[in-house]
Amino acid sequence: xxxxxxxxxxxxxxxxxxxxxxxxxxxxxxxxxxxxxxxxxxxxxxxxxxxxxxxxxxxxxxxxxxxxxxxxxxxxxxxxxxxxxxxxxxxxxxxxxxxxxxxxxxxxxxxxxxxxxxxxxxxxxxxxxxxxxxxxxxxxxxxxxxxxxxxxxxxxxxxxxxxxxxxxxxxxxxxxxxxxxxxxxxxxxxxxxxxxxxxxxxxxxxxxxxxxxxxxxxxxxxxxxxxxxxxxxxxxxxxxxxxxxxxxxxxxxxxxxxxxxxxxxxxxxxxxxxxxxxxxxxxxxxxxxxxxxxxxxxxxxxxxxxxxxxxxxxxxxxxxxxxxxxxxxxxxxxxxxxxxxxxxxxxxxxxxxxxxxxxxxxxxxxxxxxxxxxxxxxxxxxxxxxxxxxxxxxxxxxxxxxxxxxxxxx
Length: 410
Prior knowledge:
Number of helices: 17
Structural class: alpha/beta
Radius of gyration: 21 Å
Number of strands: 13
Helix content: 40-55%
Shape: globular
Mean pLDDT: 91
Distance between the termini: 11 Å
Strand content: 5-15%
Low-confidence stretches: 400-410
């Protein structure tokens, strides 16, 4: 039995794919007999803690919820008194630690709590070393350069391994900050298999969206955020709406920065507001019903280190139409599991154009290849074993005294 402590800012599902990934790894490792506890800066009264499928140790003060996406920068940082002390006192109950994410107080607490502890640790960057933000938010990048010298750079340099979810992510991160010295490793990552039965769940989703009725629809399911290219999607859908009069667009996900009002206004100005549906954040049966009922999944994102929602759509056997800024695009293109193009207006237009040019049989075969690609590359069991192997390999390389420590614990 391997005991691992995950250190992260929050398990609030509004945080998107990384939270879902941690939840699914927790489930998979438990089935294998391993321990995966999670310590967060969440308050103990946060309602979403009850939904997490494992042990969470929330260190925040009651009512001190870390804002997801739309809070002020110092609020999102999540300063939590006592976090460093807790990590130092408890880390020796575990064989290893995994730090999820950068540029927040959880990463800072991990840097001070883990350094010198003798317990090997690993860091998931979750795309937070991607050059997209340097280019889109240069002022914020300058602040991160300072934090890198004093915290993140030290945290990564002392890690047994810094974990990336694709070769593309690791390559894009190279040289983002100076000094850039750490051991990088690509590990398997993935999503839970599709929930069924498909027809029943699809019907449930449609009942929750009466305006949609029985019309076909393209599905966008992710955070509603400028990074995701929602504006490109709406404009492209408007351009092709006349060619697909029986098909609508569903844009599902939490609206953290309050962008929906502007996007709905855009849709209205383009004359397609009645053909776009906004169910908000969907989870569980409703989420899988949305996947199962979709014609295809589309995500023209400007940056995605992995894209769990893409893997989920593939699990449901749906063709995925994505930008080449989603770091698993090469695998999808190689497997013929969907269509890939650039993350601009012309590229998003081409995604629709190319998909509409396919006949029904070609679309069905693309969906079948998407399902096969998910099973061979992105199934959560494969990801769980890959991460476990990385942790055990890194632990053996760093700490030859691990068997002795286990014997002392048990």
